[in-house]
Structure formats: C-alpha cells, structure tokens
Amino acid sequence: MSGFGNFGARAYVSVGVETGVSSSSPHALILMLYDGALESLRKAIGCIEANDPLGKTRALSRATRILDEGLRASLDHKAGGDLANQLNALYDYMLRRTMQAGIDNDPAPIMESVRLLDGLREAWASIQADSQVAA
Q1: Can you name a GO cellular component term (predicted)?
Q2: Of 19, 36, 40, 79, which has the fewest beta carbons less than 10 angstroms from its beta carbon?
C-alpha cells in the first residue's frame, strides 16, 4: 500500500474525511480511512434502527466512497501482489454487502463489514506499533 501518495490524499479529502491529511504519513492516512469508513458504517446501522432513510443513505454513500475511492484506490497491486489482490476482493465484497444492506434496509451485512474492517484496522495499526517497537 506504499503507493498511496498524492492520489490517496486527494481521495481521502474527496470523501470528506477530516483533519491533517497533508501532514500525515501514508500509514496514518490508511488508519484515517478505516476510521472514517467504520464511523460511517456504524452511523448507517443507527440510521436503519432509527428509521432514518436519508441519514442511512448519506452514511452508506460516504462509507462506500471511502471503501472504493480511498481504501481500494490506495492499493499498490504491483508492490502488494497477492495481498493487494486479496484486500481488493475483500473491499469489493464489503462494498457489495453494504449496498445490498441499504437496499434491504438490513443492518446485518453492515455489521459484517464493520467486523471485517475492525480486524483490518487493528492489523494495520499493529504494523505501525510493531515498527515503532523495532526502531
């Protein structure tokens, strides 16, 4: 995922995720994307439970844009090889499940995406923690 660079920062800004993009490392930007997607997915669940279709649509739209234009777009398929391909497939799966959840007004597929993203975020955060311990 090292090819994040300027495109990733622009994608991050374009999906409305806030704060310090220009001064953040590529690693920190990915964490922000995970956080933004998770926040939006959790908000969508709350909107479904509160019978707020407009809020649900906005939250799901933001989450899908972060997944697609942020996380998927930041993958470096050349350097990342199989891992990048597997992440791409997982992001695609989450996108499809999330869109279907919006159509069906069902929070269960969104909860599944939250669990998957939480695991990815935790693993990504541990990479930074591990590299700081090794330094």
Answers
A1: cytosol
A2: 19
What the block records as the tokens of 3 is 């090819």
The domain limits of the chain are 26-134
The structure tokens listed for 29 are 């930007």
Task: Give pLDDT, residue 27.
Answer: 85
Give domain 26-134's CATH architecture.
Up-down Bundle (1.20)
CB 124 within 8 A of CB 30: yes
Summarised one tens digit per residue, pLDDT across range 61-94 is 999 999 999 999 999 999 989 999 999 999 999 9
